[in-house]
Design brief:
By secondary structure, the protein is of the alpha+beta class. The mean pLDDT is 97. Bound molecules: flavin-adenine dinucleotide (FAD) and 3,4-dihydroxybenzoic acid (DHB).
Amino acid sequence: MRTQVGIVGAGPAGMMLAHLLHRAGIDSVVVELRSRHYVQERVRAGVLEQGTRDLMVETGVGARLQRDGITHHGLELRFGGQVHRIDLSDLTGGKSITIYPQGELVKDLTDARIATGAPIYFAAEDVGTHELDSDAPTIRFLVDGQEHQVRCDFIAGCDGFHGITRSSIPASALTIFERTYPFAWLGILAETPPSSEELIYCHHERGFALHSMRTPKLTRLYLQCDPDDDIGNWPDDRIWSELNSRFATDDGWKLNCGPIVQKGITPMRSFVAEPMRFERLLLAGDCAHIVPPTGAKGLNLAIADVRLMASALAEFYKSGSHDLLDLYSQTSLRRVWKVQRFSWWMTSMLHRFPHENSFDQRRQIAELDYVTSSRAAAQSLAENYVGLPFD
Ligand code: FAD
Ligand code: DHB
């Protein structure tokens, strides 16, 4: 089989890229390791930046998002038992965020793909990329025991942090920048209405907690835990008790409890692989970079990457010019590093660190006090949270 762009991975990056390329009249083949059901049911991100939402709507895949997405104009920072609202819309000239589960976004894009009749392979085994430095890099894989080979003009690595595309680049051609954190997040999905209309990022001496939501009947909650902790150590009662302690306010705020339908522990990491291109292999999303989840940025950054990649490929096929392709890594990385900075900053401001001393604790509270009392500081948080503009 021959195509213009071979896409490895059918997560947000891969499916949005396939959609944008189709709109630009560029052929692609998508190859995904997992089943369609698995990719759509995985509980991951929930917060869309204004630009991610707009891209879905402007490119014709936003109908369900417009119907079911929940628009938020602000968020809450909670510390010292006190509630502080950041008015995102007021601080950003009217921008907002939208709560819409990642699985639903992937479903919308996958439905659009399938409607085009263009090839997409799920449950592919032994996926490998070959001849990367030739004019026809190739993806080989098996489906139901049958071998497939796709010869491409370009390959897009959209296969997440544990995928194969980044590791198919010679180690000497990549520089890795990395930071691990001495904590993880325990996340739950509970069948109970959200206890607040907006997200709550909560600093507490027992550790960070986050209140989010998926639908008017489903609450998503996270709490900081030990990175080596086992989910078996967290029976439901312990989770609710810990969440209640951390979210407690001086005015007796109540957290709604209900059956926990999903729980898991997510490690925290900052990671960047540079450059995001090797010959005719272009990387996007989590396979090139990971941010700690505190700024709700991972999915949005993956979408920002493929927006640029699609424009660069469209320019190449329209005019034969390599200019945007040659700038792809550099342009993407400018945004990647700003988002790394923001995610690291939010994480550092809100979590307890094992070796912090009383100076660190006072400084952290002063930072929260500053962000919630200075319009300039709140505006900086808000413009990053709703999503930095595209150049
Ligand atoms: P992925 O979603 O990882 O998709 C990669 C795809 O490639 C997968 O479907 C995988 O099965 C496939 N694949 C892997 N290996 C192969 C292979 N060898 N061959 C073929 N296919 C392969 N981000 C936000 O923006 N906002 C949030 O609120 C947020 N919350 C999060 C909460 C949690 C608990 C977690 C874990 C993440 C969160 N994120 C959030 C991050 C976000 O989910 C990721 O950044 C996003 O999924 C990245 O998209 P991607 O397409 O690059 O990678
Ligand atoms: C969610 C995840 C995040 O990482 C975050 O910062 C906010 C919300 C969520 O899953 O809803």
